[in-house]
Amino acid sequence: MGNFVITIARGFGSGGKEIASAVAKDLGIHCYENRILSLASQLAGLDEAHFQEIDERLRPKALLGTLQELPRALNANPVTKNFMSDRTLFEYQAKIIRQLADTESCVIVGKCADFVLRDHENVFSFYIEAPRPYCRDNVVRRMGVSGREADKLISKTDKYRADYYKHYTGGNYWTNPVNYDLTLNAEKVGKDNCIKVIKSYVALRCGQTG
Questions:
Q1: Which GO molecular function annotation, any one, does this entry have (predicted)?
Q2: pLDDT for 6-52, tens place per residue?
Q3: pTM of the predicted model, to two decimals?
Q4: Which helix (H) or strand (E) holds 57?
Q5: 44 within 8 A of 83, measured Cβ to Cβ
Q6: CA-to-CA distance for 155 and 158, rounded, in angstroms?
């Protein structure tokens, strides 16, 4: 079997990013999220005079090296601003995601990766969500904010993600289960079992056993 990609979309506070990281660790592959945005932002800031530099940085060996050098955000960060379109930034993110899919097996969190890679084989997409009380408790514990503030952060972040997805997919809904292979309730399934389900599903789809 060649490269495969696991994409994970998640509600804020559901623990989806932690699940994604654990799946990647167990499978011995990289997990990408904020580093894709960081590199895309750098490339989007270059003008046409830097085309050769952009081309070089998007080549497989250079791309992987650059991404590995960028810092990872281990915890999910809330988004408090309203969504504003930046097509150039999104296109660079999409190029990076496609290059990763062609180069290595990996886990990609967010960034409309399921949509960007919709025509690629061996792409397995998951959506992680949980009831508001569960998400609220996670945000309160992780960020040290009040329950009321946690609710605001969850609402604003999830709205941003929904608007982002709808805009760049041409009107699709971020939470639409048809977009994904599986949708998992992190509270009911449990974090550890979510990890097991994702790995088992990928193995099943890839025709592996054991």
A1: kinase activity
A2: 999 999 999 999 999 999 999 999 999 888 878 787 777 655 445 45
A3: 0.85
A4: helix 51-57
A5: no
A6: 5
